[in-house]
Amino acid sequence: MAFVVPHSRCLNLTLKQVVACSRQLQLCSSRNAGARNAVQKYGWEYLVRQEKSGRPLSPHLNIYKPQLTWMLSGLHRITGCIMAGTLLVGGIAFAITPVDFTTFIEFVRSLNLPTPVTSIFKFIVAFPIVFHSLNGIRFMGFDLAKGTDIKSVYRSGWLTLGVSALIALAIIIDNARNKKAVKY
Amino acid sequence: MSLSRLALTPLRLRGPLLAKPLAAASSMVSGYRFAGSNTAPGLSGKPMGEHALHFKIERYFAAAMLPLFPAAYFVHGPVMDALLIAAIALHTHWGIVAVINDYARPIVIGETAARMAIPAAYVLSILLLVGLLHFNINDVGLTRAFEMFFSL
User: Fold this and answer.
1) Residue A142 phi, psi (nearest 5)
2) Which residues cross the membrane (chain B) (predicted)?
3) Which ipTM did the prediction report?
4) Which residue of A24, A146, A164, B148 sits 20 to 30 Å from the alpha carbon of B23, by its own alpha carbon?
5) pLDDT above 70 as % of chain A
6) How far apart are CA B27 and CA B21, in angstroms?
7) How far off is chain B from A108, nearest CA to CA, in Å?
8) CA end-to-end span of chain B, whole Å?
9) Under an 8 A CB cutoff, do A101 and B40 touch?
């Protein structure tokens, strides 16, 4: 249904203004604080007004039913951020502190952790890499509009999750079996 | 008639109410493409058609760097290290900018913080690249680090 009334008393905008604004089709509402068109300005002021009222925020993430679609999407982003964060913190830390990576590994080795414990840590390192890569393929399929019906989304989702876990597990098992003492 | 009155009337009664304004507005409506043009300016002031190219480049790059990771499982060495950090630095940069654009919004963190968020994202990407480069040049390097970690 289109806006067919010439004057909308709700928004205090004329049809001309509404159409002019929608022609700009600005997808992000308030990313850049400076440049706002009339509709975005109205929306921004609405939000500020609501915040000032002191009313609590409606529940969102805590009430949304966990579903494979957004859980995997969240996991994709979270694994990406954790890997990036680890590389960032690790890279800078090994650069500015007197500790280098060899010292760090020697320290961990001196803790003499049992194999199951080290295997768990290795799985925690391997799984995000594998999952993010495989889910990346799945998401690129979505970008090409392939497999976007709900059945395929769920099927590919479970497949990605399962295969990532299996590949990471295979890496860990192979590593536990063929652990060579690395001389450095 | 105001928009709210129109919205409240049940659909089956809306026909006669819509007929006249629909006719009057149709001449205005027919001239516009409601989907908008992609040369119209986006929020950052740049033409929106440019985002499409950036999106494509991001995805093509991600597809291209994908074989690098299975290869890195088998092939190690300084060349693989260099390829890995080149791929990781750029891909992660785009990822960081996307995440910051999504969450560091004015309504969430305030207007000044939101304006500083994008330069902060660039700073993080630069720090990542510097850290990785230092790791590859003055420390053991990424593939060797994985070897050592997995030997624990």
Assistant:
1) -65, -40
2) 82-104, 116-137
3) 0.77
4) A24
5) 79
6) 11
7) 8
8) 75
9) no
User: A94 contacts in B (CB within 8 Å)?
Assistant: 131, 134-135, 139
pLDDT greater at residue A158 or residue A179 = A158
d(CA B131, CA A94): 8
Q: Quick check: is A2 in a domain?
A: no
Task: For the domain covering B50-150, report its CATH number.
Answer: 1.20.1300.10
CB atoms under 10 Å from CB of B41, counted, come to 13
A91 domain-assigned: yes
Tell me the whole-structure pTM to 2 decimals. Answer: 0.76
- Tokens representing residue A152 in the block: 């395929």
- Residue A3 has a pLDDT of 44
Smallest Cα distance from B78 to chain A, Å: 16
Rounded Cα–Cα distance for residues B3 and B149 (Å): 64
Domain membership flag for residue A1: no
The amino acid sitting at B79 is V
Q: Name the domain count of chain A.
A: 2
Residue pLDDT, tens place only, A116-136: 999 999 999 999 999 999 999
Tell me what pLDDT residue A36 has: 79
Quote the CA–CA distance of A40 and A55 in Å, as a whole number: 22
Task: Write down the mean pLDDT value for chain A.
Answer: 86
- Cα B144 from Cα B140, distance rounded (Å): 6
